[in-house]
């Protein structure tokens, strides 16, 4: 996972929050466990998406080779775009779960909004731009 991804930023922010915001140990433990479980599910989902995307792209490449021409870039980009949309949705879901877990700590301690706390402490949870299309040079 890229250190600039929203999920990585949320994970890093959660670690800082756990270390710096006063709250009851039980609340912190439950929040840490919820965030860790969400990250585990996220990583598993990314692996599933990666494997499915690779299979689809290999099938497109194999079909093109069988027909004796280059793979259809539009079809390859459609696969890539679909996988990236699904990965972005999974990222948004894990960030939301981490923010919810962080909010329980903040409600018990500092009493501020979790999304605002992440932003104020330099953690960028905004979505990055989608990658460029696959070209013949790739």
Describe the overall structure:
This protein has 138 residues and is mainly alpha-helical. The protein has helices spanning 6-20, 25-67, 73-108, 114-120. Helix 1 (6-20) runs parallel beside helix 3. The radius of gyration is 19 Å and the shape is elongated. The two termini are 22 Å apart.
Q: What would the keywords be for this entry?
A:
138 residues; mainly alpha; 4 helices; elongated
N-end to C-end Cα span: 22 Å
Rg over CA atoms: 19 Å
Order of helices and strands: HHHH
Largest sheet descriptor: none
- What structural class do helix, strand and pairing data support? mainly alpha
Poorly predicted tracts of residues: none
The average pLDDT is 92
| β-sheet strand percentage | under 5%
Number of strands: 0
What's the overall geometry? elongated
Q: State the helical fraction.
A: over 70%
Tally of separate helices: 4
Secondary-structure topology with pairs:
Blueprint: H1 6-20, H2 25-67, H3 73-108, H4 114-120
């Amino acid at each position: 996972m890229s250190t600039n991804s929203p999920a990585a930023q949320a994970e890093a922010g959660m670690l800082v929050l756990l270390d710096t915001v006063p709250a009851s140990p039980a609340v912190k433990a439950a929040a840490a466990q919820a965030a860790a479980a969400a990250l585990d599910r996220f990583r598993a989902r990314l692996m599933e998406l990666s494997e499915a995307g690779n299979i689809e792209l290999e099938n497109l490449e194999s079909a093109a080779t069988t027909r004796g021409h280059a793979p259809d870039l539009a079809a390859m980009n459609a696969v890539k775009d679909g996988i990236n949309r699904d990965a972005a949705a999974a990222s948004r879901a894990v960030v939301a779960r981490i923010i919810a877990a962080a909010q329980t700590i903040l409600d018990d301690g500092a009493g501020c909004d979790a999304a605002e706390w992440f932003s104020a402490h330099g953690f960028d949870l905004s979505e990055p731009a989608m990658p460029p299309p696959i070209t013949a040079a790739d």
